[in-house]
Amino acid sequence: MNAKIINGQALAEDIKDEIVKEILELNKDNTNCLNRRPNLAIILVGNNTDSNLYVDKKVNTAKLVGIDTHVYQCDKDSGQAKLLEMIDFLNNDQEIDAIMVQLPLPKGRDYDTDEIIARVKPEKDVDRFHPVNIKPVKDTCDAGIILPPVFGVILEMLKSIDCDLEDKIVTIVSKSEIFGGSLAKTLSCRGASALVVKPDAEDLAERTTEADVLIPVIGKPGLITGSMIKEDAIIIDVGITRDMGSIKGDVDTESCQDLAAYISPVPGGVGPMTVAMTLKNTLELYKIRK
Ligand code: GUN
C-alpha cells in the first residue's frame, strides 16, 4: 500500500480563505471599533537563514489575508535587556494585537528564552507558550482555549482525514516536556491515549510501533524508519531540518510509505499550515481586543 499524503499546502489555503472571509465579515458594517486590520509584531534577532525565511513566509502570507506585520529586526548581540525592552514597548502599543519572538535565539549570547516568552503579555502571545497560556492547555480540557499554532495544525490535519482520536494510541516523540506534555493533553482531551517518548529513550521503537498516530518532533532527518511504525499508521511529521540545502523531516519516507496509511510530508506539510495557523491566532487575539 502507498501512504496517502496529507497536503499541508492545500489545507493552509483553506485556513487562509477562512481568515480572509472573517476579516471581511468583521469589517463589513463599520462596527469594528478598532477600525484597522489585525497587527502582528515579529521580533527577529540576528541573521539566521532559516529564521529569515520563516519570517519572510509569515510576512508574505499575512499580506495575502489582510493582516499587517511589523518586523523588528535586531542585531544578534542586542542582548537580553534590549529584547525585553522591545517586548515591553510592543506590549504597550495599543495597535499591536499579537507578538512573536522568532526562535531559536542566537547561540553564544546569554539569551534566556523562557524569560523572553514570559515577558510577552499573555493577551498578545500568538505562540501560546507563555506560562499563563500553556497551563490550561496542559492541565485542562477547556473548550475555547487558543492553542499553540502547531497543535491547531495537528488537529486540522487529523480532521482533514476524518481521524477520530477516540481510543487511538498516539505517540509523540519530543525532547521538550512542555511541548510534548501539552500536546499529549490536547489529544487526550479528544479521546486519544497519548504519550510522549524522548528521542533517545530505550523503548523508542517499542512506543512508535504501537502508535496509531505518530507525531515525531525531533529534528533528526530520517530517524523514523519503516521498522519503527505500525501498519496503517498516520504519521504527522513535525521535524523540520535544513540538510545540505534541502528541507527534511524526521520520517524516512522511502521505508515508511508502503506501510503507513497517511504521511504529512516535509516540505509541504506542517510548515505552511503553521504559518497560516499563526495568522489565525493573530486574528483570534485581534477579535478579543476588538
Ligand atoms: N521558529 C520556528 N517556528 C516557530 C514558531 O512557530 N514560533 C516561534 N516563535 N519561533 C519559531
Summarize the structure.
Helix content is 41%, strand content 17%. The protein is of the alpha/beta class. The protein folds into 2 domains: 32-122, Rossmann fold, CATH 3.40.50.10860; 149-270, NAD(P)-binding Rossmann-like Domain (Rossmann fold, 3-Layer(aba) Sandwich), CATH 3.40.50.720.
What compounds are bound to the protein?
A: guanine
Summed up, the helix count is 10
Compute the CA-based radius of gyration.
Answer: 19 Å
| N-to-C SSE string, H for helix and E for strand | EHEHEHEHHHEHEHEEEEHEH
Profile the largest sheet: 6 strands, parallel
Beta-strand proportion: 15-25%
Helix content: 40-55%
Q: Count the strands?
A: 11
- CATH topology assignment of the largest domain: Rossmann fold
Widest sheet: strand ordering: 1-11-8-7-5-6
Span between termini: 50 Å
Structural class of the helix and strand makeup? alpha/beta
Task: Tag the structure with descriptive keywords.
2 domains; alpha/beta; three-stranded parallel beta sheet; single chain; six-stranded parallel beta sheet; 41% helix; Rossmann fold; 11 strands; 10 helices; binds guanine
Can you walk me through this structure?
There is one protein chain. The chain is an alpha/beta fold. Helix 1 (8-27) packs parallel to helix 10 (270-289), helix 2 crosses helix 10 (270-289) and helix 6 (149-160) packs across helix 10. The longest helix is centred in the first third of the chain and has 20 residues, at 8-27. The protein is built from ten helices and eleven strands. It has a six-stranded parallel beta sheet with strand order 1-11-8-7-5-6. Strand 2, helix 2 and strand 3 form a beta-alpha-beta unit. It has helices at 8-27, 49-65, 80-92, 113-119, 131-139, 149-160, 177-188, 204-209, 253-256, 270-289; strands at residues 4-5, 39-45, 68-74, 98-101, 169-174, 193-197, 213-217, 234-236, 241-243, 246-248, 262-264. It has two domains: 32-122, Leucine Dehydrogenase, chain A, domain 1 (Rossmann fold), CATH 3.40.50.10860; 149-270, Rossmann fold (3-Layer(aba) Sandwich). Bound molecules: guanine. The site of guanine has 8 residues, from strand 4.
